[in-house]
Specification:
The structure is a homodimer. By secondary structure, the first copy, chain A, is of the alpha/beta class. Chain A has 10 helices and 9 strands. Chain A has a 9-stranded parallel beta sheet with strand order 3-2-1-9-8-7-6-5-4. In chain A, helix 1 packs parallel to helix 3, helix 4 runs parallel beside helix 5 and helix 8 packs parallel to helix 9.
Chain lengths: ~290, ~290
């Protein structure tokens, strides 16, 4: 495998969210020669949408995605309606930011108002997710904003996303866009899918349908000490990143490589300029 | 769903391993009217194989499985040979205990002698696992001991088992026993597979081939605070246990329901008699 083009590196802002505000992250990307960014909605809200859009434009950054829409499942009709309204706003924000796509973390089992899982009906939750994406798709299409379904690791099936394989995400795309219409695709995050024996086939299938909208990289650490916030820097774990990148490229993906690392006890405690320097090196050398 | 027959409850000895020795666990099962047991090899070694076999016979317990064989992947030929030798001994021990099957946790990425993951070649690891099971199968068949491949949750793909879906386990069985020969099947542990959208299909496929050798129950807690040792008691988590049991029964499974709970901060700290009482109640009422 040839090393990746350094110009394809993008930074998911979660990677340094503990240290920097969004304006600081945008400035950091510019300073380090990182050409893409993928911000989170709470950070955008805190910094202001219009101001953020301007800063990103002025810095010349591509927006490889907005994190995140989704969370479609809810215990009642009102909850599902509220989720849909919020998702429509997310689509509009993604448009204003000029994002490549709105990333969808689709939601797990329905939760009550206290945030606790209130149902064991996983099949029903998956139906809610399908219906929610279907409803959002109308607004997203009219706004011209692609939706990227991100399959999450099965360990998040209950509380974050009940779409846990690329095969399932591909099937959702097929069901909701049976004629191969534009506007619905997938985000491939190595952390979530690296273990899947069907990963290569799933990437090929998504690529053949022009549905590879985003590619997220980091690493799986052994041991992993926290289900949420113990992701590794590329090269520090066990994922064969060049191999998965080769599958993405063979399937026609030409987009950026977005580094997304949640790391409570390591990277979130380091100097953020050092983190970005390391991202740049590891992107070229280890992914 | 009708409640399960209380006589189908079996106890995986890991559930109270922090509190009791194996002889104490055997006596506890007898005292609580639990009719099945599934011991771990380290406990059997500590208590003595012949003595354990006698105690289990005297207590009239069915042995729903021996935990565990597997761990086939290794960095070199010598390591793979040592693993195979150890697996043959596990088969013999399972025979002496009169176990229903030897449960295989197949191993993850190859590790070095220090126990650290030494390769990122997941595809290669899966080939080693296939070859290892294939080699062990000869000895197991001549000994008359069924081998049960247990797909483990994808979060264990790197360090414990690189077979992470029932579909993959079924495919291994098909590949190694193309004519539907006896002696190779699967262990379905809800903790590992509950999230899988293809679970029902996988159970049906295994059942149609008479490959459902074991059924393990517990629950998935939200939040889960530890990747290894934070399993829940049936009813305390989010798994729809009656639904999965209905799939097992519809697929022809008539074996026991083995409770296997690793719980560092909860069940391992409780009075073990209370744990067994709770297992009995929750088995009937919540699974």
């Amino acid at each position: 495998m040839a090393a990746p083009d350094p110009g394809l590196l993008s930074l998911n802002t979660a990677t340094v969210r503990a240290q920097w505000t969004l304006p600081e992250i945008i400035a950091g990307c510019a300073r380090h020669g990182i050409r893409g960014i993928s911000p989170w909605r709470d950070q955008v809200a805190a910094a202001g949408l219009a101001d953020t859009a301007k800063r990103i434009r002025d810095a010349g950054l591509a927006v490889t995605g907005l994190c995140r829409g989704g969370m479609f499942s809810a215990t009642d009709r009102e909850g599902r309606r509220a989720a849909l309204d919020d998702n429509r706003r997310a689509v509009d924000e993604a448009c204003e930011l000029g994002a490549r796509c709105l990333v969808l973390v689709v939601g797990g089992l329905p939760k009550d108002r206290g945030g606790r899982v209130a149902s064991k009906d996983l099949i029903g939750a998956r139906e809610m997710v399908r219906d929610g994406i279907g409803e959002l798709l109308e607004h997203a299409r009219s706004a011209g904003m692609p939706l990227a379904v991100e399959p999450l690791h099965p360990m998040y099936a209950a509380d974050r996303a009940c779409v846990n394989t690329l095969a399932h995400a591909n099937a959702l795309c097929d069901e909701l866009c049976p004629k191969g219409e534009d506007g619905l695709g997938v985000a491939v995050d190595v952390y979530h899918v690296w273990w899947d024996p069907e990963l290569k086939a799933g990437i090929e299938r998504a690529g053949a349908a022009n549905r590879l909208f985003a590619y997220h990289i980091c690493d799986w650490l052994v041991p992993t000490t926290d289900l949420l916030n113990d992701r590794g820097m590329m090269g520090d774990g066990v994922i064969d990143l060049p191999l998965i990148r080769s599958w993405m490229e063979a399937a026609g993906y030409r987009g950026m490589h977005e580094v997304e690392i949640f790391s409570k006890n390591d990277w979130w405690k380091r100097d953020p300029d050092d983190v970005l320097t390391t991202c740049r090196h590891r992107h070229v050398e280890r992914s």
